[in-house]
Amino acid sequence: MTLKAVLFDFNGVIINDEGIHKQLIEEILLQENLRPSADDYREYCLGKSDRVCLIDLLKSRGRFVSDSTLNSMIARKAELYRQKLEELPKLPIYPGLEDLIFKIRLAELPMGVVSGALRSEVELVLSRVELLPYFSVIVAGDDIKVSKPEPDGYLLAVERLNQQYPDLKASSNDCLAIEDTFAGIEAAKRAGMQVVGVANTYPFHMIQRQANWAVDYLNDLELERVQEVYATTVDS
Known about the structure:
47% of the residues lie in helices and 11% in strands. By secondary structure, it is an alpha/beta fold. The protein has 2 domains: 5-16 and 92-231, HAD superfamily/HAD-like (Rossmann fold, 3-Layer(aba) Sandwich); 18-87, DNA polymerase, domain 1.
């Protein structure tokens, strides 16, 4: 088996914006005359798409809304997110990201993003930090109906990689995922991938129990050693 591609989560792996999302979710709840609690974001939203997050949050309050109302709430949050980023002179990209991308490019491995974030948000951030051209595939929250820990996003990413690179002939087993949440790690593993857990959101010891590899920082990942593990793994 050979490592053929690397797939990144977005929020919590590429950009340190969970605090912004938490604040915006709380603002949305207040606009709906609902009181946020301190545990809402971690319990209902961490590692999940805005759609699933809002549905579960509203359901926890006994509130059910139509698809059009939900879409309006998601669009409202997306606009607030864009405004928040515009106010920042420098985006909070995680340390080590550019170094890891350089290593992966040297290894000539295609890269992708698999995230519950909206495509507009992913492209906005990657464009602003001049990294968008390096990601061949983006599977965003508006591409799939379900959220992590369901594996659908990762499976779709592999499909799109093979469409873009017909000679790649990748399967899920050939791809490495980089995640920061338990939901994300579970999604990648259910898709059949090995996972690097980066300790941006949970402590290292907790991530280490869930992922195949764990790192404190993205540039701690020893890509050559990971490639060696793939090379010595027999397809099942």
